[in-house]
Amino acid sequence: MLNKPKINSFASDNVSTACSEVMDAVIAANNGIADSYGEDDFSTRLDKKLSAVFETEVRVFPVVTGTAANALALSALTPSFGKIYCHEMSHINTDECAAPEFFTGGAKLIPVAGENGKIQADYLSSMIRGRGNVHAAQPSTVSFTQSCEVGMVYQLEEIAAISDVANAHGMHVHMDGARFANALVALDVSPAEMTWKSGVDVLSFGGTKNGCLAAEAVVFFKPELVQSFPYLHKRSGQLLSKMRFLSAQLEAYISNDVWLRNARAANTSANRLSQGLAALPEVELAYPTQANEIFVHLQRPLIKHLTKVGFHINEEELDGTAPPRFVTAWNTEPSEVDYLLEQISVFYDRD
Fold it and tell me: pTM, whole model, 2 decimals?
């Protein structure tokens, strides 16, 4: 019998701590004074460092939450009379309390069906309509999540195909990269290849789920799209007076491959858990495991057992409307994975 680990919920990578490099950077940024509202040296360096990471000149606007990053990015790309095409399971459609609609001034989200949580380019193309019709909201933006909401990863050719459809209809492309690093290391490609080289215009660059304290960013790959975004940034309350503490997190995060190391660790733990689950009786993976999220079909009695021993199961997972999700983080230990697998084995052994 394994000792019960300190952390065993697997509820989300949001529950994890910040990594030491990020925390050290925040402490270092607290030394002395610095210019405010993004005029500090940390923020200036961040633009240059992310430009090097993406192999092209980018404009970077740090924000505190992924919801803010998505909503603000979409507000830069979409007029109030526009349409945003997104997967029906996307966070902007299901989990962000209508923030995209609010920040765009009323743009319509158009949910798109697709297997394994992903938009298929051909089906997307068939849904785009209304261009030039004064009675219809105008097609403006395609938004997709990488890795997607069921833990699967868009391949480069899939991203390029979506971008081609968007471009053919005069639309922009937004990537929700809440788990950007997890997808990047899963594909083993460069940040440039997974974004602007595949047609992405604006990225919501996530850090919080992968070792940051609270740090995301809106990254523009086309300077001409920035336009009035600094005013939107300020108006939304995301232009922090002490922006250095946000920029310092992101600077440390992308330095010395910290973000890639963290993501690889999370993905490795997910693969360990996924393989272990697949080997257990009466356990079926709902989707292939490609990044750091595992969705699995479990019997109701087993789900109840897991909640009793301390694992977090969402309400919709408890009532059977969604398969339970287990998420690994940058600091998930092998012993934590093994404890979860052991608890499932214990349940079956006692029957």
Answer: 0.95
